Amino acid sequence: MTTAREIMHQGAKCVGEDESLLKAAQMMRDLEVGSLPICGNDNRLKGIITDRDLVIKCIAQGRDPASVRAGDFAQGGLYWVDASEDADAVVRTMEEHRIRRVPVLENNQLVGMISEADLAQHLPEDKLAHFVESVYASGGSSGRR
Questions:
Q1: For residue 58, what is the DSSP state?
Q2: Distance between CA atoms of 53 and 59, rounded to whole angstroms?
Q3: Strand order, beta sheet including 101-106
């Protein structure tokens, strides 16, 4: 049985909830990623911010990314999986909620992220095709409701 731990990209970095969106954008650039988990001062996962969020919900609205906190984007529901969950459960969670990336937690702490690219490396073609169809048929999101 393949688990979330085996699929995930380890070493996910969080942007702090009190950090600016400018800092989040710089982290995305430096880490070469399109999304970042948002962690609170208690080091717990609070949300996810995407490069699309930065553009659509900040810059396009005329807001200054240097003065907007990442925590302001940690609203709504957040989906995650436990590191011990099997691959089928991970895919079900992502399909059910139509999300393209999901945080992986262990003992309530972020230990990694699973993205479409991670699934592509670990799933058989038929399961991957079903995932893509399920998530993109209705315009999937990044991990939030």
A1: I
A2: 9
A3: 9-10, 109-115, 101-106, 81-82
Q: Report the distance separating Cα 99 and Cα 41, nearest Å.
A: 26
Distance from C-alpha of 4 to C-alpha of 43, rounded to nearest angstrom: 21
pLDDT-based confidence at residue 144 (cuts at 50, 70, 90): very low
Distance CA 143, CA 15 (A): 15
Cα–Cα distance for residue pair 128/35, rounded to 1 Å: 21
Distance CA 144, CA 125 (A): 26
Max Cα–Cα distance, the chain, nearest Å: 48
Distance (Å, rounded) from C-alpha 115 to C-alpha 135?
12
Average pLDDT, the chain: 87
CA dihedral 93, 106, 83, 80 (to 10 degrees): 20
pLDDT in tens, 61-70: 999 999 999 9
